[in-house]
Amino acid sequence: MGDKAAGGIPHYYLYGDQEADVELDLLHIEPIRERSGPNDWRIRPHAHPDHMQVLLVKSGGGGIRMEDRQLPIPAPGILVVPAGVVHQIDFDPGTDGFAVTAALGCLRTASAGDPRLATAAGRPAVYPLAGTGLDIPAVIDTFHWLHREFIWSAPGRRTAILAQYMRILVVVLRLSIAHQDAGTATPDRDYDLLVRYRALLEEHFRSQRSLGFFAGELAVTPARLNAACKARSGKTASELLYERIVIEAKRYLVYTESTVAQVAHLTGFDDPAYFNRFFTQRVGISPGAFRKQAARSEG
């Protein structure tokens, strides 16, 4: 079920589901009752190394523990759980709402036009909706609309899903401004270092392969950077770097007509043969085979 991280805390990709190879543009939404009801309304301590969550609690309530803080869950309310934050939730029986789990690549895409959206989504928090000036029925409808688009296969589905997710991020941003002192968890230094490392990866993963470079930019030793990454993501700093390169390569292979050699160049490889070995070793099939497989699944 979960990948045991340091201290025995499971790392999940989607709660209760683990995939060794995570697509960074993934978004998932499900009613709270579907996951929590069968588990006695308890979500046991875990973290999502590559995903963040926004939960809407329409009715019910309970309590959530994020890192070292125990917080009550208001209804209606919004819970924000950034990637890497250890959390446990105890819902009141019958609690109704939705849990949106978005990969970091999806968050980056949705917040590209306004970096404040990503900043707000990176703040662990519990926000009551009452008294904020937000249109609560409209907020609830946004989650319902996202769920409808997620389970239907209608034209423009992917665009509609992203649009509704952007609306949710705008809600989170406005709540973060309205509740400057909302009960928020305080992630530790490992978490802070991981967040800064991920941001640095986005700038340099195509051109830098040296862990020493990233550690130097972050003003820590490579060993310190590795320890933080292992503690908070269950992966080494190098594994996170390689994972990011592979995901970018997959995007080019699936969404563009670039040749494999061009994809190699676009992801920072001078030697296409080395790129082929790098990709095959981590994905299990060659870039060309991966492209064919993806085309068959799309068809």
From TrEMBL:
Residues of the HTH araC/xylS-type domain: 195-293
Assigned keywords, A-Z: DNA-binding, Transcription, Transcription regulation
GO molecular function annotations of the record: DNA-binding transcription factor activity; sequence-specific DNA binding
InterPro entries named among the record's database cross-references: AraC-bd, Cupin_HpaA-like_N, Homeodomain-like_sf, HTH-like, HTH_AraC, RmlC-like_jellyroll
Name of the molecule in the record: AraC family transcriptional regulator
